[in-house]
């Protein structure tokens, strides 16, 4: 289990987590070793995996929204004065709405 997966899951399981990440927290075993007692019970690998899996579709949707929004450049905005340009931007906005509905 990698560090990013553990960190993402912890932010979902323990909203007020005070764990501090260091270079040695690259595995579940190291994570357990450094878990602050004030955070309570140590989440199991299964809890971390489930929390990470539940967040992944949202993260994917946010990334796709970012990618779609980044395609609307100043050039594309200038092209909105044409029917084709306006239709293209409308189509991108529809795709963004689909992704936002996933959140």
Describe the structure.
α1 (3-13) packs across α3 (45-70) and α3 runs antiparallel to α5 (83-101). The protein has 103 residues and is mainly alpha-helical. The protein has one domain. It is 67% helix and 0% strand. The model has no long low-confidence stretch (mean pLDDT 77). The protein contains five helices and no strands. It has helices spanning 3-13, 28-34, 45-70, 74-79, 83-101.
Task: Name its key features.
103 residues; mainly alpha; 67% helix
| Order of secondary-structure elements | HHHHH
Mean pLDDT: 77
**Structural class determined from secondary elements:** mainly alpha
Proportion of helical residues: 55-70%
Looking at how many chains there are and whether they match, the oligomeric state comes to single chain
In whole angstroms, the N-to-C terminal distance is 25 Å
Number of contiguous helices: 5
Cα-based radius of gyration, to the nearest Å: 20 Å
Strand portion = under 5%
Q: Identify the overall geometry.
A: rod-shaped
Number of DSSP strand runs: 0
Biggest sheet, open or closed, and with what strands and sense?
A: none
Poorly predicted residue ranges: none
Short description:
The protein has 103 residues and is an all-alpha fold. Helix content is 67%, strand content 0%.
């Amino acid at each position: 289990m990698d560090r990013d997966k553990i960190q993402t899951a912890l932010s979902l399981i323990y909203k007020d987590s005070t764990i501090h990440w260091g270079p040695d927290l690259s595995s579940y075993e190291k994570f357990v070793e450094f878990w602050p007692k004030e955070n309570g019970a140590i989440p199991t690998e299964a809890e971390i995996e489930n929390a990470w899996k539940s967040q992944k579709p949202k993260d994917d949707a946010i990334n796709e929204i970012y990618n779609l929004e980044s395609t609307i450049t100043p050039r594309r905005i200038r092209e909105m004065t044409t029917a084709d340009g306006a239709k293209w931007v409308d189509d991108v906005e529809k795709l963004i709405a689909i992704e936002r509905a996933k959140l």
